[in-house]
Amino acid sequence: MNISLIFKIAAVGILVSVLGQVLKHAGREEQAFLTSLAGLILVLLWIIPYIAELFDTIKGLFAL
Fold first, then answer.
1. pLDDT interval class at 2 (50, 70, 90)
2. Number of domains in the chain
3. Whole-angstrom Cα distance, residue 52 to residue 26?
4. Is residue 12 within 8 Å of residue 46, measured between CB atoms?
5. Better pLDDT: 32 or 2
6. Distance between CA 58 and CA 30 in Å, rounded?
7. Which domain of life does this protein belong to (predicted)?
8. Residue 25, Cβ neighbours under 10 Å: how many?
């Protein structure tokens, strides 16, 4: 995992947080929820390959 992925995740977190607060204060709670959900899905799509690699490594350790 490279450091740029961590910075991307942090940037998405900050952006979603600010956008969520603005939308909540504007009375648009549904859009704030959807923004949070979209940010979560985006980050999950970024880290799924790393999770798959982790499981493959663990499987390789226990394979006889």
1. confident
2. 1
3. 40
4. no
5. 32
6. 40
7. Bacteria
8. 9
DSSP string computed for 16-58: HHHHHHHHHHTT-HHHHHHHHHHHHHHHHHHHHHHHHHHHHHH
Q: Which residue is listed with tokens 């999770």?
A: 51
> Residue 4 and residue 55: Cα distance in Å, rounded?
22
- Please give the Cα distance from 64 to 60 (Å, whole number): 8
SS3 61: helix
Contact (Cβ atoms closer than 8 angstroms) between residue 16 and residue 36: yes
The half-sphere exposure of 13 on its side-chain side, counting CA atoms within 13 A, is: 7
Degrees (nearest 5) of the Cα angle 43, 47, 31?
15
Is pTM, for the whole model, over 0.85?
no
